Amino acid sequence: MFVETEEFAKRLEAMDGLEREAAYEAVVRWFAENSGRITHHMHLAPAHTATTVRLGGGEPIVTDGPFVEGKEVVSGYAEVEVADLDEALKMARSWPACPIVEIRPVA
Amino acid sequence: MSEPDGDRGSREVLARVVREHAGRLAACLVSLLGDFSAAEDLVQDAVETALRRWPVEGVPDRPDAWLFTVARRRGLDVLRRETNYRAKLARLRWPQPGEGDDRLRLVFTCCHPALSRQARIALTLRVVCGLSTAQIAAAFVVPETTVAQRLTRAKRKIAEAGIPYRIPAAEELPERLEAVLAVVYLLFNEGYLSSAGDRAEARDLADDAEWLAGLLAVLMPSEPEVAGLLALIRLHRARGAARFDSHGRLVPLAEQDRGRWDHATIADATALLTRTARAHRRPGPYQLQAAIVACHAEAADFEHTDWAQILVLYDMLLAVASSPVARLHRAVALRYVKGPVAALAELAGLEEALSRYPLLHATRAELLRALGDTSQARLCDERALGLTANPAQQALLHQRLDPAHGEWP
To answer: CATH number of the domain at A2-101, please?
Structure first.
């Protein structure tokens, strides 16, 4: 899971066209280099587009925004097929974009 | 080091025998079953049976074969539904012919950075050193259920997150080895610092740490930092007998009876360090810390300490691994090279990082006292006293706050 921070969003914002293009290319390259392991991946629209539904407390409650209001938001994910955690860690280490990557096995 | 008390003596023998064999058995069973948790449970079961029966029946002639037989029988029993495991276990013979020592893989799995620090320590003690959950709990003065939960959670994470059972690849090795050495060093510190009188009954974790460092040094002869850590632990322990007086009070380095140091061990550890330095020429934090302790250990008395050399070593240490605590220790060396005023100036820069670290305040007190400012020194000692929970440190500070007593370098 790729996690963006406020600081990262600001840095992205401050980039000029060329810089942003280079950053984008680095991500494309990472996906190309790791294509053998990636089964599928998804980039999510920004957190301001999120809607959250809370169930279990009687009537479902629908609220605007992501499920946790915080400085860190999940911005996308990639499903990968690896032998063990070390292989996943190696991939995560070379991820060129947002500053946090959470690794979780698929249940 | 061992005490005349026979009960403690036999417990130490038991611990040594279990430690020598439990890890090997665990390593073999993890390889065979490919299931860390199941293998570990079997070994733990055998270890607990041994701890119950050996004190009564005596240690068997072939402790490894005994542990294996119990673990195997138990495995065939509890793994009834896992026909695959049972078949593998049924074929297993002991000792394993021609197998190398697999324990290194075990160590790297137990010290994987994806596990919490506490989990790494507990797992290493249990799986590699063969401690029981109760023994780990007693050593860290925490409830047994806490340790049991920590271990269960860690084993689940190993299985579910896919933490591998292997020695890391060359490019990962430096970082992963650092994590392993950190676990051993933490273990040593825990054992060494809490070895005050009131916990004499607890297992000596420093002993386990030295054994682990020794094991790693045999299994990884080309890693200079492993030898450095082993030398560091041995040099510290060689001075153990002089660290406490007959009342269990901590004795400052300057006042220690150097005749009670284990000079043969000091000579051996220093030789190991020199050999390592010459062979590799890659000084890392553990080798440098060991070299500093060796400098102290080689001085005939406190007055003959080679402080200039120690200061050089601290500068090298800070260049490879700077930390506020290392800078504090360097300031103490600086005092003896350039005087207390220069050392005090160094401490000013550490106030923020170490404001809750008792030794910062105790050191400042020491320097102020050397400059004749006894009232400020007293305030600093009181601050240090309020921050330490270690009974030996507390006693020493109480002594210092009583003006009849001397200094604490």
So the answer is: 3.30.70.1060
B337 and B306 within one domain? no
Query: Is A105 within 8 Å of B160 when comparing Cβ atoms?
Result: yes
Predicted pLDDT of residue A57: 81
User: Is B82 within a domain?
Assistant: no
Contact B161 A89 (CB under 8 A): no
Whether residue A26 is predicted with pLDDT greater than 80 in this model: the reply is yes
Amino acid at A37: R
Amino acid in position B111: C
* Residue A85 forms contact with B (CB below 8 Å): yes
- For residue range B222-260, list pLDDT tens digits in order: 999 999 999 999 999 999 889 888 877 788 899 999 999
Residue B217, in any domain of the structure? no
| Domain total of chain B | 2
CB contact under 8 A, A86 and B160: no
pLDDT of residue B196: 44
Contact B112 A103 (CB under 8 A): no
Q: The domain containing residue B260 runs over which residues?
A: 230-249+256-312
| Residue B387 in domain | yes
**Burial code of B166-193, b = ≥16 C-beta within 10 A, e = fewer?**
ebbeeebeeebbbbbbbbbbbbbebbbe
**Residue B361, token pair as written in the block:** 């305040």
Task: Write down the domain spans for chain A.
Answer: 2-101
Cβ contacts from A onto B, under 8 A: 25
pLDDT beneath 50: ranges in chain B: 1-5, 195-197, 200-201, 405-409
Q: What is the ipTM of this complex?
A: 0.82
Mean pLDDT of A10-39: 94
Could you give the CA distance from residue B385 to residue B373 in angstroms, rounded to a whole number? 19
Closest-CA residue of B relative to A89 is B114
Residue B339 lies in a domain: yes
Instruction: List chain B residues with CB under 8 Å of A104.
Output: 161
List chain A residues with CB under 8 Å of B169.
Answer: 86
* Average pLDDT of chain B to the nearest whole number: 89
A89 contact residues in B (CB cutoff 8 A): 114
Put simply, the chain B residues between 87 and 116 with a CB less than 8 A from any chain A CB are 112, 114
Buried b (16+ CB within 10 A) or exposed e, A13-46: eeeeeeeeeeeeeeeeebeeebeeebeeeeeeee
- Listed residue (B294, B296, B288) closest to B312, CA to CA: B288
